[in-house]
Amino acid sequence: RIYPLMRVTLTTSDGASVTVSRQLTKHSGFIEKAITDMAVDDNAVPLSAVAVDVDDATLKLVIEWLTEHRDDALPYPEKTDEERRADDIPAWDQAFVQKWDTKEDQQQTLYAVITAADKLDIKGLLDMTCKTLANKINGKTVEEMREILQLECDFTEEELAEIRKENAWCEN
Amino acid sequence: SGMSQDPGEELVEGLDKMEEVLSLDQFDPPNEAGSEIGKELRDYFNLLGLPIELISHSFSFLSMEDRLRAAGVNKRLKGIELASKYYVERVLIEEAEEIPKEIKEWMMMMRNAVDGDDGDDNEEDLDFYDVKISQRITFHKGKSYSSDCIRRIAQNASIKILEIQLYGSEEFHRDIFNLIKEFDGIKYLEVGIKGKDKEMLREMMVDSYLLGLTKSCKFLYLNVSESVSEKVTPDALHQLCKDMTDGSTNFCNLAINSLRKDRCIELLKLVGIIYRDDTFFSSKEIEVYERRAPDDSVRSYSIIDGAIEFMINCDIFECAYGGFIICLHKTRDSLKEVRNREGYFRIDISPE
């Protein structure tokens, strides 16, 4: 039903624009809805323009991911009553993340891509990036988690004692 | 075509990849130069800047252990954790010891009994011992614990298989057994207590406790001693049958490893089936199937009363106790399987 030659021009929050195939944008719930709302005839109007609240550097990454995943099944298979795990990220995605999720970057790009995936409603990308975040604290002690997430402990001594007792079985 | 002349050139199915995307190089430059990802976040960035739903979504991929630990990081994460629901494949709450072989065998029997219980094809995959334990909560004797973690799990988790194996009787165990009722949406629940002192569970096993357990799950296996199962009354079982038949509960299978035979007979009487001198009497349209061990020492009966099946398995001459199952069959196919169960033969019943 989607005409592969149809193009969508995306305008970023910082004024850049890029034109991509509908083959890619169909994975974005946000862009699909924007196009549907325009009520254009897919055949008659081959080019639609959609403004996205994402900066252009982040959008480039999103498009790179969408290009790899353009043939993913739609609708995205959402897991509700099924065990979720973070260790099933495909190899391509892992390599993709490793390119920019570096120590120097301090998770800023990850933050930006998670936010963009959420705004653009790209479920596969959102799951993958959230799993990447989860993997950072997987199996870590509470102290390590604080360090990784750069968070201060704001519990009182009493509350901490209570938590320690509660979590006695899972403190590693 | 020109492309196929180069064997190293990989064609993307249908359209060429670059044509499809147009090219990333065609990105028009932004209005301001020097755009950087997340530049506005640089000074104060941390992951808690993400909306709660996204943090919660990320944590949903973690194990229960990781999540409960994450709740100890700071107040905000604790708040997020308290509000997040999660699904766990199989939880074992135990005081460290392996599950004995004979209990595993029992489990396989139970599994055969419940196959196809609600007509959902996926149900057949409920292979208890093939599902790996994704969460093992182990308490060590003599150490001090808080049952609050179990309460937290009860409130937040949807669980496929929950097993509870505790020993002896302590106040902490009592808390845990009480908390089981607060769980919601467990598919399979196994409750057991071991060790010499079963007094606590015996004391707790009143009708309302048993019925409470059946509200929290679909399948309940009471892996308890005779002194505990003795407290299970025919009235409670009868109530359960009524609830299962009229659809006021999602519960569909109760299995008790050892129930007094006279209790089974009393229950049957309450539903209008008399068992006397090896013969079943009823004015209802029931079907009775029997299986005898080769030496006739053990007999099993399967009684179909509408959509409900009662299964009684006992050494009828020697033992006053036997395995007992009440099962709701929601589909015709499921009932058909009962009728064709291997080794069982239909026996005549007498009108009252």
UniProtKB/TrEMBL annotation, chain A:
Native source species: Pristionchus entomophagus
UniProt entry keywords in alphabetical sequence: Ubl conjugation pathway
Boundaries of every SKP1 component dimerisation domain copy: 123-170
Spans through the membrane: none
Signal sequence bounds: none
Official protein name in the record: Skp1-related protein
Coiled-coil segments: none
Domain named SKP1 component POZ: residues: 8-71
UniProtKB/TrEMBL annotation, chain B:
Domain F-box: 44-90
Top-level division of the source organism's lineage: Eukaryota
Matches recorded under Pfam families: F-box
Record's signal peptide: none
InterPro entries: F-box-like_dom_sf, F-box_dom
Classification via SUPFAM superfamilies: F-box domain (SSF81383)
Protein name as annotated: F-box domain-containing protein
